[in-house]
Amino acid sequence: QVQLVESGGGLVQPGGSLRLSCVASGSIFSIWAMGWYRQAPGKQRELVAGITSGGITNYADSVKGRFTISRDNAKNTVYLQMNSLKPEDTDVYYCKGSFMKYEYWGQGTQVTVSS
């Protein structure tokens, strides 16, 4: 059974930074494509950033140049470095791991950007 556990969310002022972490257990992490998604109440979950098993990254237009996704396969961890945060980045952020037909989600971590 694969488990994903996010951490690093919290309250930050506009312009500030946060780093989210997602630790995976129960499988060979290095073969999984990983992604960070976010969801506001009443809205559809959207992709923020993704990284393949080979390290290729992609980003939503709204976060390009501000957010960076990375992975450390030795630690079974994927990160999301978020800089220049804006109030509209306020959401619950979820980590997802996928491989072929399998996908798993973490429980989510709240990010609130407010003065």
What does this 3D model show about the protein?
This protein is mainly beta and about 120 residues long. The protein is about 0% helix and about 55% strand. The protein is built from no helices and eleven strands. The protein has strands spanning about 5, 10, 20-25, 35-40, 45-50, 55-60, 65-70, 75-80, 90-100, 100-105, 110-115. Strands 2, 4, 5, 6, 9, 10 and 11 form a seven-stranded mixed β-sheet that branches. A four-stranded antiparallel β-sheet has the order 1-3-8-7, with no helix packed on it. Strand 9 and strand 10 (about 100-105) form a beta hairpin. The chain is globular, with a radius of gyration of 13 Å. The protein starts with a strand and ends with a strand. The mean pLDDT is about 95.
Which labels suit this protein?
mainly beta, 7-stranded mixed β-sheet, 4-stranded antiparallel β-sheet, 11 strands
Major β-sheet annotation: 7 strands, mixed
Q: What separation lies between the terminal Cα atoms? A: 40 Å
Strand count: 11
Annotation field: number of helices: 0
H/E element order: EEEEEEEEEEE
Quaternary: single chain
**Share of residues in helices:** under 10%
Indicate the overall shape. globular
What proportion strand? over 45%
Radius of gyration: 13 Å
Mean pLDDT, to the nearest integer, reads: 95
Poorly predicted ranges: none
Look at the helices and sheets and give the structural class.
mainly beta
